[in-house]
Amino acid sequence: MYLFILVFVSCCIGAVCGFGGGVVIKPVLDLVQYDSTQTVYFLSGCTVLSMSLYTVGVSFFRKEKSVKTAVSTPLAVGAIVGGMIGKEIFTYLLQTASQAGTVKAVQAVVLIFLTACCLLYILFKKHIRPLHTESLLTSCGIGIFLGTVSGFLGIGGGQFNLIVLYFFFGMNTKIAATNSLYIILLSKISNLLLQIFTHSVPAFEISSLLIMIAAGILGGIIGRAVNRRVTDKVVDGLLGGVLCAVIVICIFNAVTGFSGR
């Protein structure tokens, strides 16, 4: 039951703010030692994929035009390439690390640093002028960086997407949320296909996957409805709170991972 609640709440908040939910789901499942690092990585990715597929699919179906494909597609293409790089880095570390807990700890440290950067940007966003980047090459390069980070961490990376969309492209909070999920959707589809074709899908309980997907889609339904009714200020406040919680959880994961517990 706690698995359903965790995923539902994470994806509900994720749909409101524009991240897939993996940034909460994976650290928490690592914290409670739900399963192996590889299995948590896979389950988290599938959950994020299902939620973003629903949210973005409905947006396209209703022709809301909130997805700025001219901006987000180059980012997504770069993220797909980066996702493959990140997955290879993750696999390499798993194979060379003395214990799986070390990889979890390294992921936690990277996530702490990047999440803290995102939090600082949220706090001082009104004092920072967006760049309004138009270069296609720059967009693809940024996408590769985002995909590499997300692929390595096993999360959707929506909080990083949001900061990029704010700073480099000048999107407002709610438009950035939808475009972030669009980028996550394309990168997660490619990541899943890569795992299938390379026969690197780990052993997992099908019941856990079904529970997480169902909770992810339900969270997407509720979160999307909430997103349409709240202000940008509320979304920013909610995102800031989530980022603070993620940092605390990741600090604990890093300590336990490096200590071998």
Describe this structure in words.
The chain is mainly alpha-helical. It has one domain. 79% of the residues lie in helices and 0% in strands. The protein is built from ten helices and no strands. Helix 1 runs parallel beside helix 9 and helix 7 crosses helix 8 (173-197). The longest helix has 28 residues, at 69-96. The two termini are 25 Å apart. The relative contact order is 0.23. The model has no long low-confidence stretch (mean pLDDT 86).
Topology:
Blueprint: H1 2-17, H2 22-31, H3 37-61, H4 69-96, H5 100-124, H6 136-153, H7 158-167, H8 173-197, H9 206-227, H10 232-259
Helix pairs in contact: 1-2, 1-9, 2-3, 2-10, 3-8, 3-9, 4-6, 4-8, 5-10, 7-8
Strand residue content:
under 5%
Please state the structural category. mainly alpha
Nearest-angstrom radius of gyration? 17 Å
Number of strands: 0
Low-confidence stretches: none
Please report the number of helical segments.
Answer: 10
Please, what is the oligomeric state?
single chain
What number is the mean pLDDT?
86
Features of this protein?
single chain, 79% helix, mainly alpha, 261 residues
